[in-house]
Amino acid sequence: MSFKRAQPSPNEKPKRVSAKSCKTGYLGRAAEQTALPRFVFAMKAAKGLINWIKTGITEVTSAIDAEREARIDAHVARVDAEFSRLKKDFAFDAAVEKLNISSGDRQAVAERV
User: Fold this and answer.
1) What is the pLDDT along the chain (113 residues), one digit of tens a residue?
2) 10 Å Cβ neighbour count for 42?
3) What pTM was estimated for this model as a whole?
4) Which of 45, 74, 80, 90 is most exposed, with the fewest beta carbons within 10 Å of its own?
5) Whole-angstrom Cα distance, residue 34 to residue 68?
6) What does DSSP assign to residue 18?
């Protein structure tokens, strides 16, 4: 079975489409109006999901590592003492490296110092 393209009659002129008659673009006006809000909604939903996952990870980590709060408090006290000792010459990265604070605890220490 073969399909043949419909041929215009010899007396019929082909229709021309002007640029002015195609104002809405390929998707049409309705699609253009709804595409952006859907994208913005999807981005907000993704951001909310990521924040929810971060919160869950923090809560699970805290539950698994029950001594984390005490360890972070001790690290904060040591970094604060180092800051008081060095004053203007203090560099956080150098201090946490010198005090052997793990990379997982550094963010929490930085927030509390």
Assistant:
1) 555 656 666 676 666 655 555 555 555 555 555 667 777 888 888 888 998 898 888 777 767 777 888 888 999 999 999 999 888 888 889 988 998 988 888 888 888 88
2) 10
3) 0.44
4) 45
5) 47
6) -
